[in-house]
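Duplicate of #3305? Posting structure anyway:
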């Protein structure tokens, strides 16, 4: 009888111990299942499509190895899209940083009253509230040959005739870059403003006691304190900007004559215009590899700061 009771107690103890160990995995399980279903499985499928040819719905699609990668990497159109993406991304990220930093410094300045500060905050954050479709329609109207921008340029004699900003090969990439800069700077502004408000006032007082000017305080106090935020925001912005699709597709569609063709629009056209899903998957994998490299640096920078 005693042995039976002992066995029951040990069985209950073992089951409760097992339940305690399994509980954390039970909480994580729903998220893990979603990640596997929505991320891991699609990525594996895209990689499998990139090393095969023919219809992606066919079970007998022949294995081609790295043939698709070699074909894509020797395609001038791919490198044109990669170059445009590089110019578009670098210009956007640098401008986002400079404009966001400038506006955040202004909004954090004591020279600005509380009411004007609140008004400027609302105005400056507006581009971040608009959807891509609204931004595209707005800028198509502004940059129309008969739009406001051309009217002002002609009024001050900076342009002799209307400029087709989205239709001129010499101006289209500049136009979509400016549009993306306008749409994305509030993210930097808000993040940097939060960082500025977290800088201890004692550091500025110590710098003033040492005789540092306003610019020297900016270089020796403000920038070092904002450095982690700047690095994090820049890496995230690189990831987001290289994958920008909606603004490009809704304004130029990658044209004219491919001067605004980005890797995102190039991949989309391979899949849904040329119906070459294998090459589209190959292009997507290459973009994924680049994104993973940037993501690894981002994670490492976050760990080093923590």
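Output from current build:
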């Amino acid at each position: 009888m005693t042995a039976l009771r002992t066995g029951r107690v040990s069985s209950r103890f073992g089951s409760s111990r097992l339940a305690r160990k399994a509980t954390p995995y039970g909480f994580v399980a729903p998220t893990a299942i979603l990640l596997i279903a929505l991320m891991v499985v699609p990525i594996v499928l895209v990689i499998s499509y990139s090393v095969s040819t023919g219809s992606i719905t066919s079970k007998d699609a022949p294995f081609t190895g790295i043939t698709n990668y070699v074909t894509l990497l020797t395609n001038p159109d791919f490198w044109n899209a990669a170059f445009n993406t590089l110019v578009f991304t670098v210009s956007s990220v640098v401008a986002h940083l400079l404009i966001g930093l400038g506006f955040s410094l202004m909004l954090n300045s004591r020279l600005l009253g509380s009411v004007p500060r609140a008004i400027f905050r609302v105005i400056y954050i507006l581009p971040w509230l608009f959807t891509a479709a609204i931004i595209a329609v707005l800028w198509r109207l502004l940059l129309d040959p008969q739009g406001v921008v051309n009217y002002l340029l002609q009024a001050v004699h900076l342009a002799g005739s209307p400029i087709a900003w989205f239709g001129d090969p010499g101006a289209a990439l500049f136009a979509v870059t400016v549009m993306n800069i306008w749409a994305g700077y509030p993210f930097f502004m808000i993040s940097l403003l939060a960082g500025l408000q977290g800088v201890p006032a004692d550091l500025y007082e110590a710098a003033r006691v040492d005789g540092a000017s306003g610019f020297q305080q900016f270089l020796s106090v403000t920038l070092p304190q904002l450095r982690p935020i700047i690095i994090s925001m820049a890496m995230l912005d690189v990831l987001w900007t290289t994958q920008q699709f909606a603004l490009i597709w809704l304004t130029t569609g990658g044209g004219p004559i491919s001067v605004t063709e980005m890797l995102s629009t190039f991949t989309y056209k391979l899949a849904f215009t040329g119906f070459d899903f294998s090459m589209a998957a190959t292009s997507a994998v290459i973009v994924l590899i680049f994104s993973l490299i940037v993501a690894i640096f981002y994670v490492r920078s976050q760990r080093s700061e923590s």
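Confirmed duplicate; merging threads. Residues 70-305 form a domain with the MetI-like fold fold (CATH 1.10.3720.10). The two ends are 58 Å apart (CA to CA).
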